């Protein structure tokens, strides 16, 4: 269960969800026609080893492996991660085409875009996350010998702290257009923290800045509590429902749209249909998840 002052590394609590997502991206890469390719996803999983390596070898040696390899939900979740990666990669391609040279990856986790996407000269990429999460990625990349394709700067700060000042302390320039991303983050924040994050992004964004987020519509409270209890009673306790908040300050398109941004929401089900990975409407678990999720981009007007 989450607490107000909890922390984590890459293998515990919220940190482990980054590994779960990386594993899904690595499994997507194994498919004949992957929606997106992240060559570092497998490297991160194998650096941790154990069940994470087993999972990529098709062995369901732990609860995460069983969930991804042995359930219909797991197959759809892999498609979801491939589609989500494709969507946000395209978002950054548009930002680069528009000349944006300042990037902020909020709750960066195992995001490898600083290393695998083409960036304009003089681009600065700020990655915000817990210190031990950033340390893991830094060490893996150092052992691999790979360098980022832009000026990558780690901002080791908890989002519940003064992250905006930490950004400035690392050279962030609020007068420059910025491309922000909050991928796979909002469900791990209570509504008040989502509001604080949105307010901070808006305040630091000059005209021409961009934001991309993934968001989920809250579940009915009784359904959510039942899911939490089911997780507590199983060997998957602490893997998802006991880590997230079933809250939303407002739909992102509505929140940013009312504050001078041109926002475009895309329902996840529509995006999955468009890339040829539809989820059957009658799927009892994956269907409602996809229906509740949206991908949103917005550009701040001048």
What does this structure look like?
The protein is of the alpha/beta class and 302 residues long. The chain is 45% helix and 15% strand. The protein has 13 helices and seven strands. Strands 3-2-1-4-5-7-6 form a seven-stranded mixed β-sheet, with helices on both faces. Helix 1 crosses helix 2. The relative contact order is 0.13.
Q: What structural class should be given to the helix and strand makeup?
A: alpha/beta
Strands, total number? 7
Mean pLDDT: 91
The biggest sheet amounts to: 7 strands, mixed
Rounded radius of gyration (Å): 18 Å
Shape: globular
User: Distance between the terminal alpha carbons, to the nearest Å?
Assistant: 43 Å
Query: What low-confidence regions span 5 or more consecutive residues with pLDDT below 50?
Result: none
């Amino acid at each position: 269960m989450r607490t107000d002052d909890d922390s984590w590394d890459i293998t515990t609590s919220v940190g482990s969800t980054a590994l779960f997502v990386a594993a899904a991206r690595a499994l997507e890469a194994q498919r004949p026609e992957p929606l997106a390719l992240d060559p570092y996803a497998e490297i991160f999983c194998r650096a941790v080893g154990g069940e994470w390596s087993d999972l990529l070898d098709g062995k369901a040696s732990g609860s995460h492996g069983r969930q991804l390899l042995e359930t219909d939900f797991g197959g759809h979740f892999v498609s979801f991660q491939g589609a989500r990666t494709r969507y946000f990669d395209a978002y950054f391609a548009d930002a680069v085409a528009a000349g944006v040279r300042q990037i902020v990856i909020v709750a960066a986790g195992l995001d490898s875009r600083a290393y695998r996407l083409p960036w304009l000269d003089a681009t600065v990429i700020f990655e915000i996350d817990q210190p031990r999460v950033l340390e893991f990625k830094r060490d893996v990349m150092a052992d691999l010998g790979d360098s980022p394709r832009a000026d990558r700067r780690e901002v080791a700060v908890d989002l519940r702290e003064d992250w905006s000042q930490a950004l400035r302390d690392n050279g962030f320039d609020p007068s420059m257009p910025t491309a922000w991303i909050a991928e796979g983050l909002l469900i791990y924040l209570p509504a008040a923290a989502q509001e604080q994050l949105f307010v901070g992004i808006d305040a630091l964004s000059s005209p021409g800045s961009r934001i991309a987020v993934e968001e989920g519509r809250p579940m009915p409270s009784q359904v959510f509590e039942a899911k939490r209890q089911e997780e507590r009673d199983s060997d998957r306790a602490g893997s998802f429902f006991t880590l997230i908040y079933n809250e939303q300050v407002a739909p992102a398109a509505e929140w940013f749209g009312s504050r001078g941004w041109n926002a475009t929401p895309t329902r996840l089900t529509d995006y999955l249909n468009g890339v040829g990975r539809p989820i059957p409407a009658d799927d009892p678990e994956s269907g409602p998840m996809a229906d509740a999720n949206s991908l949103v981009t917005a550009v701040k007007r001048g």
